Amino acid sequence: MAVTAIDDQEFGQFQKLIYQLAGISLSPAKKALVGGRLAKRLAQHRLDSYGDYFKLLTANHNPVELQVAVDLLTTNETYFFREPKHFDFLRNKVLPGHKPGHNFRVWSAACSSGEEPYSIAMVLADHFGDGRWEVAASDISTRVLEKARSGHYHTDRTSGISREHLSRYCLKGIGSQENTLLVDQALRSRVNFMQVNLNQPLPALGEFDVIFLRNVMIYFNQETKRQIVQRMLPLLKPDGHLLIGHSETLNGVVDTLQMLAPSIYRKP
């Protein structure tokens, strides 16, 4: 069955839907991407238009298919030790000032397929060893969370990992698993993955010393950014740090944080 291309009206329906569900603002430039990502679902359900697929999602309360659509429409580009200055800051500035005996907690708030929280965990394990530390990692997409929990990656995703970290925290695949690596079970056990929609009231996660909220706010409009940051601030400990993507800013979003450097903020 041939699927017709997504038209402007149909794209507008999915724009509104993903904004309502996840707070994500899709620009008109994303029209082809939306069509391409949803085309397989139309084929799966033997539908010949995107309008029919939209009806399937919304007319019958269909939480499973709705989650599939959200998974497909949320962008998940990431890699190990992306934007390395943040990991240098964590290693060299934050951790040396941490009071011994206190549990150190970090939240990777848009963790995608897990490379960011595992990178954080490597830095914390270097510093604390088997001490009191943990990483919480969340995403709206159940599909990428499943990938993240496995800790299994193709080696082309791992170029940012140092040789030292590779030997200490990763297992190299052999035979049928050649060209892959597995994050060591001991490190995986320190990362708690969960589904969280940042555009809704947050679950009881406790307080964090550092929150990574990187490369996700580019998908939100200004008001949504304000709401998300306001929900997160109570979870950041006094003197805690909020890290955002290098291409992002909190200008006009929040005025209660101290900017230490571009993309690095401290809660007084």
Account of the protein in words:
- With 268 residues, the protein is of the alpha/beta class.
- The protein folds into 2 domains: 8-73, Orthogonal Bundle (Chemotaxis Receptor Methyltransferase Cher, domain 1); 84-266, Rossmann fold (3-Layer(aba) Sandwich), CATH 3.40.50.
- It contains 10 helices and 10 strands.
- The strands form 2 sheets. A 7-stranded mixed sheet has the order 6-2-1-7-8-10-9, covered by helices on one side. Strands 3-5-4 form a 3-stranded antiparallel sheet.
- The longest helix is centred in the N-terminal third of the chain and has 15 residues, at 8-22.
- The chain is globular and about 60 Å long.
- The N and C termini lie far apart (59 Å).
From the structure above, extract its key features.
268 residues, alpha/beta, Chemotaxis Receptor Methyltransferase Cher, domain 1, Rossmann fold, 3-stranded antiparallel sheet, globular
Low-confidence stretches: none
CATH fold-type name of the largest domain: Rossmann fold
Q: Quick one: biggest sheet? A: 7 strands, mixed
Output the helix-strand order. HHHHHEHEHEHEEHEEHEEE
| Biggest sheet, spatial arrangement of strands | 6-2-1-7-8-10-9
Structural class: alpha/beta
How many alpha or pi helices? 10
